[in-house]
Structures are given as C-alpha cells and as structure tokens.
Amino acid sequence: MAFELPNLPYDYDALAPYMSRETLEYHHDKHHLAYVTNGNKLAEEAGLSGLSLEEVVKKSYGTNQPLFNNAGQHYNHIHFWKWMKKGGGGTSLPGKLDAAIKSDLGGYDKFRADFIAAGTGQFGSGWAWLSVKNGKLEISKTPNGENPLVHGASPILGVDVWEHSYYIDYRNARPKYLEAFVDNLINWDYVLEMYEAAAK
Fold first, then answer.
1. What is this structure's pTM?
2. Residue 159 to residues 60, 91, 123, 171, 198: CA-CA distances in angstroms?
3. Contact at 8 Å (CB) between 39 and 3?
4. What is the pLDDT of residue 30?
5. N or C: which end of the chain has fewer CB within 10 A?
6. Percent of the chain topping pLDDT 70
7. What is the distance between the alpha carbons of residues 94 and 9, in angstroms, rounded to a whole number?
8. Over residues 143-160, mean pLDDT
9. What are the distances in angstroms from CA 76 to CA 73, 107, 132, 147, 177?
10. Greatest CA span in the chain, whole angstroms?
C-alpha cells in the first residue's frame, strides 16, 4: 500500500492567524511530501510496501530507523492535518471526551496545562500526545517521528513540535504555538472519532 500525500482538509489560509499559509505550504507541500517519497522508496527496499501504514510503523520500529522515521512522520502528519480546523480548540469538547478527560486526566484545565508542558518539555524535535492506553487517556511526548503506536497506545491527538511546524509564525516561542494550537485549532470532533475507534 503506497504512501500518498493527502490533500489538506481546508484551504491554506483557513488556520490563520494561528498557523499561516506559508507554514502550511512548507510543512505540508515540502516536509510531508518528503516523508511520503522517502517512505515509499524505503518500504519497497525493505519488502514492506504491501503492508498498511500502521504495520510498517510497528515493524520498522527498532529494526529499520530510516524507514521508521519516514513512515512514522507520514502517519503523524496524516492525522495532524485532521486534528486542526478553523474555529477549533477551546473547551467545547464532545460530552464523551469531556467525561474521559475529567475522569482520567483531572479535567480540561489540567489536560491543557499538562499537554502544553509535554510539548514544551520535548527536547529538540518531536511530538506531544493524547492517547488511549489500557482503556485510559494519557499524555506523553516522543522524540522525532516516534508515536504512541510503538508503545502499545492509540494516539487520538498529537501536536508537532518540530521547528518547521511553528518557526515561521512563532519563531522560537514554542509555548505560544502550543497555546494557540490547544485554544484555537484542535478539531475535537476528529479527536472523538479516534477516541471511539481506540475504545473498541
């Protein structure tokens, strides 16, 4: 199953002023495309091109670092674009998700603080995550292109903290980018969709 670059689910200007057209053009059209191109080549060389993306990510983890880096980043970015929407973020969570965040993470305000802290505290490139593991929500961070799939969890929300995801708009102010992401960009409907799939 060849990797393919998905179209953005919104216009390049849709997320402004929190994420600019220029950031999306570089991030989606150049960075994500490179993961797709390199991932396809490396998956074919490894004889794994017939597998699903999730299987390639899991099989290449710890065994084929170049393939894992590209497959992991392709997986992460497919969802990253869908985890954002115009007019997103904030406290208007679907009820089921709100209840889970209250019971597992101590409520929305604590989730917000802990999620932003995970992203801020990830040294260098990486991601911050909200995942389902053993039936409960947890917040984590991973380096580079790694994601919770390889740690027995199902990611339901992730934020990219590689510099290319925010440097054009926020320079080195990663916490401001993370605050803008949580408060103004999260597509809670897609988070709920992934939560319900992970809970099955």
1. 0.98
2. 22, 17, 14, 17, 18
3. yes
4. 98
5. C
6. 100
7. 21
8. 98
9. 5, 25, 16, 7, 18
10. 46
